[in-house]
Records
---
Amino acid sequence: MDKRKVIIDCDPGIDDTLALMLALRSPELDILGISIVCGNVPTKKGAENALKVLKWMNRLDIPVYLGEETPLVRPYVDAMDTHGEDGLGESWYDCITSVRPKENAVQFLADTLNEVKNNNDNISIIALGPLTNIAKLIQLHPECLDGVDEIVSMGGAYKSHGNCSPVAEYNYWCDPDAAKIVFENMFVHMVGLDVTREIVLTPSILEYMCNVNSKIGEIIKKITRFYFDFHWKQEGVIGCVINDPLAVAYFIDRTLCDGFSTYTQIETQGISLGQSVIDAYDFYKKEKNSYVLTTTDAFAFMQFFFERVVEVKKEESAPVLKQIMVQK
Ligand code: BDR
Ligand code: CA
């Protein structure tokens, strides 16, 4: 199988952790490194969490790089109210000491992209946090963009409401200036709240995970408890929305989601700060710079996740998931 080279840029974070687990269990991906950005938690904490995931999945050979510690312009606002003080739902797993994070994620991105570009190859970026590292890359090393195959970004919202304001999703709200730069310079596959809100890890699904794979199931249970409580208080959801793994799944399997090509820009000021303004009706007559996802097959996603992360074949998970998932 021809593996696709990827760098995963993230802010782990509970759902980032689930996304990393999925990526690490996907044979289609050659993960060259994990770059960390400030978002859900400060960068250094995010890097510690990435190392914990690598240890759980037996992949400490993949390097973790520390990225930007503040957004480009706005003051930094973390999301530890959602993800807990440790970023992993206050599970307080021990830090990894045998391997440490490396410095300078932006330089790593630039060096790796330039190297592949010189070999007529390319790399994709799966971005699961605020886009600060990627915007810095564009500002400091614009030449290396030729080495990017695709960028998939979890962020934004089209018709769905925001999760930080009526209109803004966290990743783009946290660093709207970075998101604006990225959309102005790259064609972005936008995996926004319209689709990720469909992906709900419910208590029944979690129980099923624990029954079939106690090691991974118990880790997921421990890190998502806090997230469950937050979702109930904040959104009246039983369980939790897991945004980031859908971006990884979509990168690998395009049949899981649908959307349309359009022009998108990110608002950086005022009450709609962080909003992804999607010109679905072509008012601005601008060149399309994004593929915005609008629908997803949550059942197929869950089967995909189960097959890889908890190692249950699709034909085996189908009858159980049919019992415990609401079919639309
Ligand atoms: C996004 O913000 C973070 O809290 C999650 O990790 C996800 O990337 C959802 O708005
Ligand atoms: Ca994230």
---
Amino acid sequence: MKQLNVGILGLGTVGGGTYTVLKRNASEITRRTGVAINVVQVADRNLANAKALAADVEVTDDAFAVVNNPAVDVVVELIGGYTLSRELVLKAIANKKHVVTANKALIALHGNEIFAAAKANHVIVAFEAAVAGGIPIIKALREGLGANRVEWVAGIINGTTNFILTEMREKGLNFADVLGEAQRLGYAEADPTFDVEGIDAAHKLTIMSAIAFGMPMKFEQAYTEGITKLEQVDIKYAEELGYRVKLLGITKRSDSGVELRVHPTLIPEKRLVANVNGAMNAVVVKGDAVGPTLYYGAGAGAEPTASAVVADLMDVARLIDATSAQRVPYLAFQPEQVQDLAILPIEEVQSAYYLRLRASDKPGVLADVTKILGDRSISIDAMLQKEPDENETEADIVILTHITVEKNMNAAIAAIEALEAITGKVVRIRMEELAK
Ligand code: HSE
């Protein structure tokens, strides 16, 4: 029987899960592929742990020993980060080894360089586990939806923030109260600001955008806004109006360019994706032929992520003897067809909005606010005015608008904030229907 020899870099949560799944399901995997997938070497800084887990495998604390090992056909990179991992992956490719990685930061930041090197060396670089953990969204976008012109992709692609937002809504807690618990549950990145500031989601969105539209990775141009400033009161008001607040990664193609943005977003509660709770992930992809499609599952964790890593290894096992032309291109499109599409700055993005303002409870304030919006052709969709609490003279006004261009809304907000009757800043959250 054909053999595929694997070297694993990093035997932590995902590496351990990968090793376990490969062992437990070995016969089923071989029935599917016709290939025996063997782990022949593992590198981890914690030698004792690695030896305890992978007792029958050669273990080293030198990752370069694995990428330089002539017996290894495919390197599985699970160490994270994007400095050492970049070096190791490029070295593995130079040594004509195939690479499977779960590393979203590495692909989002250095994917263009890595794919160029992989093409030159005729090796596979597979990265299903880098986006939404166990959900096979890369395969769906790249192959299952290949007949479509993809119009947009919107996803809950960070479990930590989805867990925090779910707790805030269900228990009426504030952001700071829930953060610690999310970290304790082990979904968070080594640096949790990557989760709560939307950077992790932007890495994953960048990858989806590249394969949805056939363009290079453009992480540095992604607009990223996290959930740290989100207030409990806005989650409550949104709910009163029939919406849920989710941290969404959104990428859309229009004639003027590509939107690439991560931010808290109001979604109608009747959408399935609005009901994705806890640490779960979900991605909606709109194709011109198929319409909106939804992919749901665990976006993190040992075995869910291992599920994607092992599926990639199975692809390598099947395609190892194929020519580059017979393989699915890295970015879904033929390399010479990858287009350098322009990313729209956030000021040019089109969105509907939720606005909350604090206003003196006196005649004419609402008329002034609606005039500012009307003067800029911003149409109001719904409005909510809360009665001031006893002994208070100011009230919250919540406005939902129809779609406008962001720079127009920026000008309107500046004018509203300049009104004498308005106290403090206007809270603005973008809103998406995700219907068509
Ligand atoms: N920190 C990530 C999350 C882990 O919370 O979704 C998976 O990439």
